């Protein structure tokens, strides 16, 4: 092609026409129809081969992935725990009676709990307690009601500071969503404190996590799903010093398939956090 262009400019017009279609030889763009067909065939085969190779590779890789699913499933299907408000280092620090010191925490809690407002939850289903809420494959999935009011003193409804103003803060413990997870037994959240005389109140009662909120079908089909929550109200012992640090660990109990003692993952089925309250 470069050679053609190097010829005189006055000739190049007809040369180009010749190049595009040469009536004598029947060449189109310098090639005969059969030559073009061959080239086309070559590329067709070539790219077909590449596509085939790609598909094969993909397929082989997916096969191996499939094989490893059961291996990892055990770990994946055991959820982690997290708290709200989630602060840096999982340390909740504030001064009683000092609104600014806990404003951010209660704001976080209010925002976090908004989807649980009874008025919003009214659109969801009243499910049978204690039973899994299994649903058909195809449909858009329904969600079970979890009323904000069931968190009682920690709902932020009657006491909109969640107890922070009186130094008895609420912390919400939530379990990560795991698609398809069905906890066995009677899962519940139990928290312990190394500090003596710390009183803990659970909402709902006993820190129970009802089975009706499982399984979860995923973001796409289970649009209105809200995960069950457990709120813990921390009532510290009477103050002796001006600074009380309370270290707490919350764990999932009562379910065989929810792990809570993995050495490598300290959030698997448990969460540790600190609460510091200045008077
Ligand atoms: C904090 O507020 C409570 C009432 O909510 C009040 O009884 C108490 O005296 C206050 N404490 C301080 C240090 O202001
Ligand atoms: C949620 O609250 C509504 C009304 O406030 C009530 O009718 C419903 O039974 C409650 N649902 C649950 C699961 O407690
Ligand atoms: C919850 O923790 C308390 C305090 O450690 C303990 O006495 C109780 O047995 C625990 N409950 C369960 C179900 O493990
Ligand atoms: C407060 O301190 C006193 C003495 O310093 C001690 O006797 C008492 O047990 C402490 N109270 C609590 C609740 O720790």
UniProtKB/TrEMBL annotation:
GO terms for cellular component: sodium:potassium-exchanging ATPase complex. This is Sodium/potassium-transporting ATPase subunit beta. It is a single-pass type II membrane protein. InterPro entries: Na/K_ATPase_sub_beta, Na/K_ATPase_sub_beta_sf. Belongs to the X(+)/potassium ATPases subunit beta family. Keywords: Cell membrane, Disulfide bond, Glycoprotein, Ion transport, Membrane, Potassium, Potassium transport, Signal-anchor, Sodium, Sodium transport, Sodium/potassium transport, Transmembrane, Transmembrane helix, Transport. Its main location: membrane. The sodium/potassium-transporting ATPase is composed of a catalytic alpha subunit, an auxiliary non-catalytic beta subunit and an additional regulatory subunit. It is found in: Cell membrane; Membrane. One of its GO terms (biological process) is sodium ion export across plasma membrane. GO terms for molecular function: ATPase activator activity. The chain crosses the membrane at residues 36-62. This is the non-catalytic component of the active enzyme, which catalyzes the hydrolysis of ATP coupled with the exchange of Na(+) and K(+) ions across the plasma membrane. The keyword Transport applies. Pfam families: Na_K-ATPase. PANTHER family: SODIUM/POTASSIUM-DEPENDENT ATPASE BETA SUBUNIT (PTHR11523), SODIUM_POTASSIUM-TRANSPORTING ATPASE SUBUNIT BETA-3 (PTHR11523:SF47). It comes from Xenopus tropicalis.
């Amino acid at each position: 092609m470069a050679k053609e262009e190097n010829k005189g400019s006055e000739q190049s017009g007809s040369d180009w026409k010749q190049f595009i279609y040469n009536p004598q030889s029947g060449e189109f763009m310098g090639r005969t129809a059969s030559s073009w067909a061959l080239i086309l065939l070559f590329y067709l085969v070539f790219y077909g081969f590449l596509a085939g190779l790609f598909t094969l590779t993909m397929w082989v890789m997916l096969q191996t992935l499939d094989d490893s699913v059961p291996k990892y499933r055990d770990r994946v299907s055991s959820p982690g725990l997290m708290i709200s408000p989630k602060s840096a280092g999982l340390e909740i620090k504030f001064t009683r009676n000092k609104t600014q010191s806990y404003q951010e925490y209660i704001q976080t809690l209010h925002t976090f709990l908004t989807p649980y407002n009874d008025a919003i939850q009214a659109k969801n289903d009243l499910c049978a307690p204690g039973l899994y809420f299994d649903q058909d494959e195809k449909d858009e999935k329904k969600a079970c009601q979890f009323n904000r009011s069931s968190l009682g003193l920690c709902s932020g409804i009657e006491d909109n500071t969640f107890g922070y103003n009186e130094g008895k803060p609420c912390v919400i413990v939530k379990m990560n969503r795991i698609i398809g997870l069905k906890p066995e037994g009677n899962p519940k959240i139990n928290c312990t404190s190394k500090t003596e005389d710390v009183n803990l109140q659970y909402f709902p009662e006993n820190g129970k996590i009802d089975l009706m909120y499982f399984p979860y079908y995923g973001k796409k089909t289970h649009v209105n799903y809200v995960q069950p929550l457990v709120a813990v109200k921390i009532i510290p012992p009477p103050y002796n010093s001006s600074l009380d640090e309370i270290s707490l660990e919350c764990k999932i109990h009562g379910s065989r398939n929810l792990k809570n003692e993995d050495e490598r993952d300290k959030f698997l089925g448990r969460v540790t956090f600190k609460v510091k309250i200045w008077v």
